[in-house]
Amino acid sequence: MDSVAVRLAMVNKIAAQGVTDPRVLSAMGAVERHRFVDSALAIQAYEDTSLPIGLGQTISKPGVVARMIALLLQVHPGKPQRLLEIGTGCGYQAAVLAQVAQEVFSMERLRGLHDKARDNLRPMRLANLHLILGDGMLGYPKGAPYSGIIAAAGGQDVPQAWIDQLAPGGRLVAPVVVPGQSTAQALMVVDKTPQGVTQTMLEAVHFVPLKSGIV
Ligand code: SAH
């Protein structure tokens, strides 16, 4: 598949949606999203849509991936030192994150997807990306503190472990269930500032549920 032109069109659409950070746009332009989905779905890989990746999970919409990474980078003028991703899935977002940060730790609770991500990512040889099979609700203390934490699955709340593992000046971006609603989710931004921890709710999103334990 000659994907350069379609990928450029995807990046232009993302820019038109309001993501202007050149670090994000160039990372989205660099990662070949069609390599992270089944070949039968490759033709749809550059549409702004989520797609099935097996085990009931989905690869996130590129527009949302770009939006969340842009939010994460807003508080970091340069290359953030260490990022934690919860929900490796097929490894797509992890590959994008590895373009914009010095080091990335990505956790997945489903062994089948952890293995699939490893296979998908192997040809890219990203020495700064570490895949971890584990329950992301506990975070990954070995890599902490993190300049940024990004979740690709939504829970009722942001686990305290994530906030504890966030570095001062760091930012966390995660989908959470809107209080009082059973399924509706919104993006939550948590900043660790010298004045304390602040939380901001942003737009509605649709992510797979955050679950505990390893399967
Ligand atoms: N970033 C991924 C999105 C995958 S969907 C991509 O680019 O494809 C979200 C993933 O989060 C699913 O694979 C799901 O298994 C995983 N997940 C849900 N709860 C988790 C947890 N507690 N720890 C780690 N991964 C989790």
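^ S-adenosyl-L-homocysteine complex. Residues 53, 57-60, 86-87, 89-90, 92-93, 107-110, 113, 135-137, 152-153, 208, 210-212 surround S-adenosyl-L-homocysteine (CB under 6 Å). The CA atoms of residues 80 and 87 lie 19 Å apart.
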